[in-house]
Design brief:
The chain is α/β, with parallel strands linked by helices. The chain is built from eight helices and twelve strands. Helix 6 crosses helix 8. The longest helix is centred in the middle third of the chain and has 15 residues. It starts with a strand and ends with a strand.
């Protein structure tokens, strides 16, 4: 039995199938962790969703920013963006079943007691100022809202760059918005844990006073699995935590990468984009 964590699919269904074949993945014995952004930009987002959904409880998925964007478009009234490739999902006959499934996905998955110690997967990373237990609790606040009666109203107001600095006394939509941004959009932060939302490229694009979140130390030592940041090309230079970057830019012509959580081996297939 193996558990494989895979970075952002972003609608690259052919590569996803090729990677599963390369892994000799068997859902009767193996499990998948998917680090979010299953959809958008690539050619077949609908097929990616259906492929993952068919795996049932053999696949664990965390929400990424593109996944939340789909929900905001479909159920929060947000406009589509020029480069979106969401129409196949929005026009699908099983659209509501798919959206219900996606909306029930968490922001954080954790596995205690593995060979690597506690393993935590989120889409963008883990704020150094948060313990794993605190992060799990905060993720639960957003998940409860997404699955509650006020989900539509939350999706309407989810977007925004403020506030950018975490405080425990934040409340209401500002608290929920920042939790979402940390889990799904974080790249560069400052020493106080404030997020920068402008720089999206490699490490040399860091604004003055900011560094990648994984270059700040933590008080604990989880194994952190994340996607989101394709410009890293799967590398985490200067890391001061145990972090594995798995978005290797398949949708941009790079590769799609899986990490064997038991052995630590990485397996990749080339992009067809």
């Amino acid at each position: 039995m193996s558990t494989y964590a895979i970075g952002d699919l972003q609608g690259c269904h052919a590569e996803f199938v090729a990677l599963l074949e390369r892994l000799a993945f068997d859902p009767r014995r193996d499990r998948l962790w998917l680090a979010g952004d299953l959809i958008n930009r690539g050619p077949d987002s609908l097929a990616c969703l259906r492929e993952v959904m068919a795996l049932g409880d053999r696949a664990e998925v965390v929400l990424g920013n593109h996944d939340l964007h789909l929900l905001a478009v479909a159920r929060g009234g947000a406009p589509q963006k020029r480069k979106d490739t969401l129409s196949g999902i929005l026009d699908a006959p099983d659209r509501e079943r798919i959206l219900d499934w996606l909306q029930a996905c968490p922001l954080l998955v954790r596995r205690p007691g593995s060979a690597q110690g506690e393993t935590v997967m989120t889409h963008a990373g883990l704020l150094p100022q948060w313990s794993v237990a605190q992060a799990a609790g905060l993720a639960g606040e957003v998940e409860a809202r997404l699955n509650g009666e006020q989900a539509g109203a939350f999706l309407e107001r989810m977007y925004g760059n403020q506030p950018a600095c975490w405080r425990d006394d934040l409340d209401g939509i500002e608290r929920l918005r920042l939790i979402v941004n940390i889990f799904t959009r974080m790249r560069f932060i400052d020493a106080e844990g404030c997020l920068d939302f402008e720089a999206k490229e490699g490490l040399d694009s860091a604004p003055p006073g900011f560094a990648p979140w994984f270059q700040y130390p933590r008080d604990d030592d989880p194994w952190l699995i994340f996607g989101h940041w394709a410009a890293l090309q799967g590398q985490t230079p200067g890391q001061r935590v145990r972090a594995e970057a798995l978005d290797t830019g398949c949708v941009w012509g790079g590769t799609m990468t899986a990490l064997d959580l038991e052995s630590g081996e990485r397996i990749s297939v080339p992009s067809r984009q």
